[in-house]
């Protein structure tokens, strides 16, 4: 019997050269991978544009309904109420959109797409980060629609275009932090409809028990205390001050701190859940 000699590194390299027709591409970096998944989110919108209905038509309906149904009763005229309402509707519309981050992630999970991503030799958090970067574009679209529609109806930001853009940027940053919470929810619950219902079950009371629609000065003590510390109220105050040209430093700082805190807590939680599902 003839003994077989063990393969050497030289033999292995020769075999690789024989079977490889082109040079092996370098492994993608974290940034390029995350941007690729962000582009995937944009392509989903391109091929299914109906997904934009929730960030375009719904906010417009909210503006029309509240301005012309309640404006005269609450502020004396629709024009005066629109000046108060629009920054709040901007906050409400963009914050509501964060729920769909969890819905999209849960849909990928239930369809097995996440299993395919985890089998790829890529930076593990890239699909999560890329998806949320893509969702941030949806936040910008929703906010821009609200601002343009408000100007058409007669809203005039005293802070000018700079104040309006600054307010939109602040709301998008806050929503990016909040979207990590709904990404975690999307990985915990078992169906997209459960994520949708659960998400709005929390956001509806938070937005309606805030200063988005009315001045809370006349509310009873305990309810007003809740409204004052509600993060949605603080964010609305910050956005309203930026659009009015009188930035409220405390409200802006608190809003940014809440966004950073949510991301700091839920980013590792979401990443851990993503690896274990």
Explain what the structure shows:
The protein is mostly helical. The protein has twelve helices and no strands. Helix 2 crosses helix 7 (126-153) and helix 4 runs parallel beside helix 8 (160-188). The longest helix has 29 residues, at 160-188. The radius of gyration is 24 Å and the shape is elongated. The model has no long low-confidence stretch (mean pLDDT 84).
* SS field, number of helical segments: 12
- In percent terms, what proportion of residues is strand? under 5%
Mean pLDDT: 84
SSE pattern, N- to C-terminal = HHHHHHHHHHHH
Percent of residues in helices comes to over 70%
- The residue ranges in which pLDDT falls below 50 over 5 or more consecutive positions are none
Kindly provide the radius of gyration, computed on alpha-carbon positions and rounded to a whole number of angstroms: 24 Å
Q: Can you tell me the overall shape?
A: elongated
End-to-end C-alpha gap: 51 Å
């Amino acid at each position: 019997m003839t003994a077989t000699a063990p393969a050497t590194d030289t033999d292995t390299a020769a075999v690789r050269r024989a079977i490889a027709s082109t040079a092996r591409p370098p492994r993608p970096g974290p940034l390029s991978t995350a941007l690729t998944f962000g582009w995937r989110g944009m392509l989903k919108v391109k091929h299914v544009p109906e997904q934009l209905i929730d960030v375009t038509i719904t906010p417009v309906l909210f503006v029309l309904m509240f301005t012309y149904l309640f404006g005269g009763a609450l502020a004396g005229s629709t024009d005066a109420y629109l000046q108060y309402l629009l920054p709040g509707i901007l906050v409400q519309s963009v914050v509501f959109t964060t729920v769909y981050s969890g819905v999209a992630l849960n849909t990928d999970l239930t369809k097995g797409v996440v299993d395919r991503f985890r089998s790829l030799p890529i930076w593990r958090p890239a699909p999560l980060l890329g998806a949320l970067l893509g969702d941030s574009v949806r936040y910008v679209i929703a906010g821009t629609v609200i601002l343009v529609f408000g100007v058409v109806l007669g809203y005039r930001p005293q802070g000018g275009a700079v104040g309006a853009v600054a307010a939109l940027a602040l709301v998008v940053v806050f929503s990016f932090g909040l979207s990590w919470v709904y990404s975690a929810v999307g990985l915990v619950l078992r169906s997209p409809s459960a994520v949708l219902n659960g998400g709005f079950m929390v956001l509806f009371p938070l937005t309606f028990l805030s200063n988005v629609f009315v001045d809370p000065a006349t509310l009873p003590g305990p309810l007003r205390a809740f409204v004052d510390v509600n993060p949605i109220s603080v964010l609305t105050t910050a956005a309203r001050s930026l659009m009015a040209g009188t930035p409220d430093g405390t409200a802006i700082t608190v809003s940014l701190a809440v966004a950073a805190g949510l991301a700091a807590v839920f980013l590792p939680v979401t990443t851990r859940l993503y690896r274990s599902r």
